[in-house]
Every structure is written in structure tokens, then in C-alpha cells.
């Protein structure tokens, strides 16, 4: 039996390497044979591409280095300090290596050090990585090798790497949110001490405002037992200290906000303060990475979860994935739309009548995320902002950042001429407010949006904020009477 001179073709397809070495261009003037020899020699001398998986902990890193065929080249552990990490990167890693690590608290400083020594550093999403490479045997060496293998096969789900300014904003916003949580816990402890002694605070005052704190301090003299006085005094001292720290962070955030046009644009949305605007800017980062407002809302975990199988579709609660600080702040900002005019207030009130209050709050928070994406993408301020409250918010930001208290109007100590009986104050139109604060002008309303305003009966509101107004001042006698009203303590037999 004679054999065929043509060898049989293999039925298994060969897989091309992930990053094949790039052959350098031949030197001009050489023959074809000499040029081919030069390319092969240069390719043989070039170091091969390797893939490095790093399992990062607080005090150590476990690493695994694979070649392009998936064979282990080297593995081990190092102590996680900046000096040891830089030494490891300079002596062990190569400029052609590709490294991968999971997103952790200290991952970004590791990325900053490694980027100077390797070709690329990838940060993966831990939740998605576990879904792809689940294993019952879990060790640091296994995790590092899995990261390297996923990187080699291009199966690693990556996350966006924020720049230094975005990381700073995230740290400041997160730390301030933590301090606010401490303040809330201290206030709840004081409420608990009063409740355990059947003491009811006076009606009509804020317990932790100026008059409320004065009332609490009066309890410490002779109106409460010694142990209760000790606990309340301790909590009041801690409250004062925590509030001072919050004020310092507010000042720093205001300084950053004053230099950022994005924060000023977000401040035009009713309910959005400087702190919330900074949290949104820090959470979104580069807004161009979101293709739509729905994608931005989904990134903050404000979209409903979905379970679909065949013809059955179930929409459950929101996913709550993403930046929890920004999501919480948006939910808090949405609370006030129960009494806000305009299209968004109409949306809140209509949904609350159909469903319930909490559903309306979360849905409005999602709307706020979409609106924030729209403003940051187009660079246009909010069309339906309240002129007076917007002016006050931008003025508070200006005072906190620069100390400039007045911009335009009458001089200090000069009262404007009263037009209405009993005095009044003028309110600029929304376009005048934006022009005075250096913000872009609003674009004309599209026909479809005008039709929507008519259907929701909010067109009158849109026309009202587009024209200057004159509103009466509150009576001085009424204001003085409210301030001098004595605080009464409710008592029960």
C-alpha cells in the first residue's frame, strides 16, 4: 500500500498567540534574503510576552507569571510596600509584560508603580471574575494564576481606571460620607438616652440646632441623672468634633468645585448640593464612557434587576451595584421632589399616587442620574431650575471657595427701593442667573418637549422661570415673632 506524498491536514485549528511579537521593519537597501534574516534575528532576540497575575492583599502580593503558551515561568510572594514593589517590578518584570490584578482598596497605588515597568496593567472586576473562574479550591497562588490565565486568553472583565483627580474626589466624598454617618450615630445615641428616661424634646425646635443644643446642655445641670448627663455630655463633645471635621471636608470640596465647571452645571439641578455634585463627578469620571443616561444610572445601581426565562420576565428591586455613596446621595436629593414644581416634581407626584412614596423616590433618583449625564455630556445647565435657589447655591459655593460675598446688586448696607407694599425682592430670570454666573445659555425648547410640558401642565412654570419676578418679602414682625416664640416642653401626666 503506497502512502500519499501529501501530508494529512490536522483537523484541530491552531490558536494564534494573544500578542505575537511584532517583526521590525527591514533596513532600507538590503536584499530580500538579508532583510528576512534581519527580521528573524530581531524577533528571536526580542523578549517574549508574559502575563502576570497579582493577588493583592493589604500586606503582601502573591504573583504568578505565565508565558504566552500558559506555562508557569515564576511565582512567589512579596511584602507589599512601595520600595519592595518597585524593586520587584524593576528586577522581575519586563517592559513587554502584561499584568492584571483585582480592584481593591490599594490597587491604584499598585497600578501607579507597575505602569512604569510593564507594557500594560489591567484592573479586573472581582464580581465578574468570580463568575467566570469559580473554583472550590481557592488559594492565593490559584487566584494569581487564574488572573494570569484569564488575561492571557483575553477573558478578563476589566474596570475603568480613574485618573488621580477622580480618585482624590472619591476619597474625599467617601470620607465625608463616613463622618456624616458618625454624626448620625451620635445623634441617635442622644435620642436613645432621652427615650430611656421618658424625656421628650421641646416641640418646634431642631434638637441639634442652636436652640436644641442649648436645651440639651440645660438638662445636664440638674434635670437629668448623673449617668445620663455623662453620656449626653460625651456625645455632645464628639458631635462638636465630628462637625468640625465635616466643615473642613466641605471647605476642601468647595475649593475643588469652584474650579470645575461640571460641578456648577450639576448645581443647577434642584436638590443637588456641592457635596452631591462632587460625588457624582467622582463616580462618573470620564462621562464619555457612558453611551446613554440609562448606562450612567445602571452604573450607579439605580436600574431594576431583571430575571428573564422564555416568556417570563421579572423586574425586581434595583441592583444596588456601583458607587454606593453617590447612589445614597441621589436618593436623599430625590426626597424633596414631593414639593417641587416643574416636570420632575410632576413625575414624582404622579408616580407616588400610582405606586408609593419609596418607589417614587428611587425612580426620581434614577431620573436625576440621567439628567446629570445629560448635563455633563452637552455642557448645558438644567432647563427647569429654580432661579432663586440656584443663585443661592452658587453664591454659597462662591463664598466658601473665595470669600466673595456679593456679586452685583446694591452696595453693602444699601437697601433697594421698595416696589411692593411692605417691601419686596427681585428675582432674576433663569437665563440672567446663568449669564451672571458664567454658565452656558439654555437652548430653545424642542417642539416635543413643549408638547410634553402642556400635557403635564408645567408649561406655566417653564414660562415663569424664564422672566424676571418681584416677590414680596416676609413681614419683619412675623419673622421676629417666630424667633422670639418660647420653646415649650411637652409633658404628659
Q: How would you describe this structure to a colleague?
A:
α8 packs across α15, α9 packs across α10 and α11 crosses α14. The protein folds into three domains: 102 residues, Nucleotidyltransferase, domain 5, CATH 3.30.420; 95 residues, no CATH class; 153 residues, no CATH class. The termini are far apart. The strands form three sheets. The protein has a five-stranded mixed β-sheet with strand order 3-2-1-4-5. A two-stranded antiparallel sheet has the order 6-7. A hairpin with a 2-residue loop joins β6 and β7. The chain is built from 19 helices and nine strands. The chain has 493 residues and is of the alpha/beta class.
Decide which structural class fits the backbone. Answer: alpha/beta
Spatial order of the strands in the main sheet? Answer: 3-2-1-4-5
**Approximate shape:** globular
Cα-atom Rg, whole angstroms?
31 Å
Distance between the termini: 116 Å
Structure summarized in a few sentences:
The chain has 493 residues and is α/β, with parallel strands linked by helices.
Supply the key terms:
19 helices; globular; Nucleotidyltransferase, domain 5; 493 residues; alpha/beta; 11% strand
SSE blueprint and pairings:
Layout: H1 32-45, E1 51-56, E2 60-66, E3 72-79, H2 82-91, E4 98-102, H3 107-114, E5 120-124, H4 126-132, H5 140-152, H6 164-196, H7 210-222, H8 226-258, H9 261-267, H10 274-284, H11 293-299, E6 304-309, E7 312-318, H12 324-334, H13 342-354, H14 357-378, H15 387-402, E8 424-427, H16 430-436, H17 447-455, H18 459-465, E9 469-472, H19 476-484
Parallel strand pairs: 1-4, 4-5
Antiparallel strand pairs: 1-2, 2-3, 6-7, 8-9
Helix pairs in contact: 6-8, 6-10, 7-8, 8-10, 8-15, 9-10, 10-12, 11-14, 12-14, 13-14
Amino acid at each position: 500500500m503506497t502512502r500519499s506524498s501529501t501530508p494529512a491536514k490536522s483537523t484541530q485549528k491552531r490558536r494564534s498567540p494573544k500578542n505575537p511579537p511584532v517583526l521590525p521593519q527591514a533596513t532600507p537597501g538590503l536584499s530580500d534574503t538579508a532583510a528576512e534574516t534581519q527580521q528573524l534575528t530581531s524577533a528571536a532576540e526580542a523578549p517574549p510576552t508574559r502575563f502576570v497575575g497579582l493577588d493583592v492583599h493589604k500586606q503582601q502580593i502573591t504573583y504568578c507569571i505565565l508565558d504566552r503558551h500558559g506555562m508557569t515561568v515564576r511565582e512567589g510572594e512579596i511584602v507589599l510596600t512601595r520600595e519592595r514593589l518597585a524593586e520587584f517590578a524593576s528586577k522581575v518584570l519586563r517592559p513587554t509584560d502584561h499584568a492584571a490584578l483585582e480592584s481593591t482598596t490599594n490597587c491604584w497605588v499598585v497600578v501607579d508603580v507597575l505602569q512604569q515597568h510593564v507594557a500594560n496593567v489591567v484592573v479586573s472586576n472581582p464580581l465578574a471574575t468570580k463568575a467566570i473562574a469559580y473554583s472550590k479550591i481557592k488559594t492565593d497562588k490559584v487566584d494569581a494564576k487564574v488572573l494570569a490565565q484569564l488575561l492571557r486568553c483575553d477573558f478578563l472583565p476589566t474596570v475603568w481606571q480613574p485618573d488621580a483627580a477622580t480618585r482624590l474626589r472619591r476619597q474625599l466624598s467617601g470620607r465625608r460620607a463616613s463622618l456624616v454617618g458618625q454624626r448620625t450615630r451620635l445623634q441617635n445615641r442622644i435620642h436613645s438616652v432621652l427615650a430611656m428616661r421618658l424625656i421628650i424634646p421641646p416641640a418646634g425646635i431642631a434638637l441639634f440646632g442652636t436652640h436644641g443644643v442649648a436645651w440639651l446642655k440645660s438638662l445636664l445641670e440638674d434635670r437629668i441623672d448623673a449617668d445620663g448627663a455623662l453620656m449626653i455630655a460625651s456625645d455632645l463633645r464628639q458631635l462638636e468634633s465630628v462637625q468640625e471635621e465635616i466643615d473642613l471636608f466641605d471647605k476642601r470640596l468647595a475649593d475643588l468645585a469652584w474650579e470645575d465647571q461640571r460641578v456648577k452645571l450639576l448645581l443647577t439641578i434642584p436638590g443637588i448640593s456641592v457635596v452631591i455634585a462632587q460625588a457624582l463627578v467622582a463616580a462618573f469620571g470620564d462621562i464619555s464612557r457612558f453611551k446613554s443616561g440609562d448606562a450612567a444610572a445602571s452604573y450607579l445601581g439605580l436600574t431594576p434587576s431583571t430575571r428573564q426565562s422564555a416568556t417570563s420576565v421579572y423586574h425586581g428591586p434595583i441592583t444596588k451595584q456601583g458607587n454606593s455613596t453617590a447612589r445614597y446621595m441621589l436618593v436623599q436629593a430625590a426626597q424633596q421632589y414631593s414639593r417641587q414644581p416643574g416636570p420632575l416634581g410632576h413625575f414624582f407626584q404622579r408616580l407616588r399616587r400610582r405606586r408609593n412614596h419609596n418607589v417614587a423616590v428611587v425612580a426620581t433618583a434614577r431620573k436625576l442620574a440621567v439628567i446629570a449625564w445629560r448635563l455633563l455630556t452637552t455642557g448645558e445647565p438644567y432647563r427647569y431650575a429654580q432661579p432663586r435657589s440656584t443663585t443661592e447655591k452658587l453664591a454659597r459655593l462662591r463664598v466658601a471657595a473665595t470669600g466673595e460675598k456679593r456679586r452685583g446688586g446694591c452696595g453693602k448696607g444699601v437697601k433697594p427701593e421698595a416696589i411692593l407694599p411692605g417691601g419686596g425682592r427681585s428675582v432674576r430670570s433663569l437665563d440672567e442667573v446663568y449669564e451672571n454666573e458664567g454658565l452656558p445659555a439654555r437652548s430653545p425648547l424642542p417642539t416635543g418637549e413643549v408638547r410634553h410640558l402642556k400635557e403635564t401642565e408645567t408649561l406655566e412654570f417653564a414660562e415663569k422661570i424664564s422672566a424676571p419676578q418681584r416677590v414680596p418679602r416676609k413681614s419683619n414682625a412675623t419673622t421676629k415673632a417666630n424667633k422670639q416664640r418660647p420653646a415649650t416642653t411637652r409633658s404628659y401626666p
